[in-house]
Design goal:
The protein is α+β, with helices and mostly antiparallel strands and about 375 residues long. The protein has twelve helices and 17 strands. Helix 8 runs parallel beside helix 10.
């Protein structure tokens, strides 16, 4: 996805993808329990999400996975209770599998011991080597595998043990079982049961949920405008662009009152349609008392990335009579870029006086304007 936030925690219509998946499985009457296997860095976040499930839901245990998906599934298999006879494996980022699909897969597994949910191919499928077509596969024999995949526990566990001992890696659970010679059967899946892999998949998922425009109908660029003003305060230091600047006065505010960064945050939030800085970081919240506005910039960009957007550039204009800003601009850009996790060339800062006109000209305060461009 190219994002810092793991994709399973990205929100879709206000709800994380993983939570949507868990809600369906937690309500399945034929399941006895859930094991959620995730990377070590995500365990606590996953537990927090699991705690948001209704009390009537199945019990759920969160455990650490391994370096690859195959290692993670094997960790989960070893954690299953001894009296467990069946296991259903599903991708956490397939949030649209329905209870009806889970029920059909479970019933088929009881009859066949090993079942994969899949869709028949609708396009002609080519076998390719080094860019050259070497065969055309019979389309009526080609199915596209999804999850869930359901197996007798002993059958799947033995397949994983054999693959591990032989150093063999497969792309799904069924491929490991197939290597043992055991037959694996197909149950027709659902077209909406997509796996969220790319930013375009998020748009498709939103469209599935509520008929929202797909990615090709949405502009890849979004523009926001920010403006802020702060009055001078003789008892505070002056922070602009994350840099403390020598001056007789600072700026009055709940945070460090960095008027430049506040305008930048508002511009970025505006481009992402995420309201304004006061909504996310209110001056009534003691958590933001005297906080560095560089931290607010970091938090702002975290919100933006959760929407699948990235910062392209910001253009800023400071309006003040004194002090002189030009010598400090390189350091401002350096600190802003570091906080944003972006290249320095993403930021441009200009400063202008008002020829002693208005509140800025009278040296009563500082104003800042910012325009931000975000991309998908």
């Amino acid at each position: 996805m190219g994002l810092e936030t793991p994709k399973q925690f990205l929100e879709l219509e206000g709800k994380p993808l993983l939570l949507r998946t868990l809600e369906t499985f937690a309500s399945a009457p034929f399941l006895d329990g859930l094991l959620l296997v995730t990377s070590p860095s995500c365990v606590e976040k996953a537990r927090e999400l699991a705690g948001r499930l209704p009390e009537r839901s199945l019990s759920i245990e969160v455990l650490e996975g391994g370096a690859e998906r195959q290692d993670s599934v094997f960790n989960g298999l070893r954690r299953l209770p001894d009296d467990c006879r069946w296991v259903m494996v599903h991708d956490g980022v397939r949030p649209f599998a329905t209870l009806e699909l889970l029920e059909r897969a479970w019933q088929a597994a009881r009859a066949h011991q090993a079942v994969v949910v899949a869709l028949p191919a609708t396009d002609t499928v080519k076998g390719v080597e080094d860019g050259r077509i070497v065969e055309t596969l019979p389309r009526d024999r080609v199915w596209l595998a999804q999850t869930p995949q359901v197996f007798r526990k002993d059958l799947l566990t033995e397949a994983y043990r054999r693959a591990r001992s032989e150093g063999w890696s497969g792309t799904d659970d069924a491929s490991l079982v197939e290597r043992t010679g055991a037959p694996v059967f197909v149950v027709e899946g659902e077209p909406a049961n997509i796996k969220i892999t790319t930013p375009e998949d998020l748009d498709r998922a939103a469209w599935i949920l509520g008929g929202k425009p797909k990615v090709e109908q949405r502009s890849p660029m979004r523009i926001g405008h920010g403006y802020d003003v702060h009055v001078f305060d003789p008892d505070r230091p002056l922070f602009l662009g994350g840099v403390e600047i020598p001056h007789t006065h600072g700026l009055l505010g709940h945070s460090d009152a960095d008027v430049l960064l506040h305008a930048v945050c508002d511009a970025i939030l505006g481009a992402a349609a995420l309201r304004d800085i006061g909504h996310h970081f209110p001056d009534t919240d003691p958590a933001y008392k005297d906080i560095s506005s560089l931290k607010l910039l970091e938090k702002t960009l975290d919100l933006v990335r959760e929407k699948g957007l990235r910062l392209v550039n910001v253009d800023i204009t400071l309006v003040l009579q004194k002090p002189r800003i030009a010598p400090h601009i390189p350091r401002m850009i350096q600190r802003m870029a570091r906080a944003a996790g972006a290249d320095e060339e993403c930021f441009n800062i200009k400063a202008t006086s008002t020829e002693k006109l208005g509140f800025a000209g009278r040296e009563e305060g500082v104003a800042a304007y910012a325009v931000a461009l975000l991309g998908t």
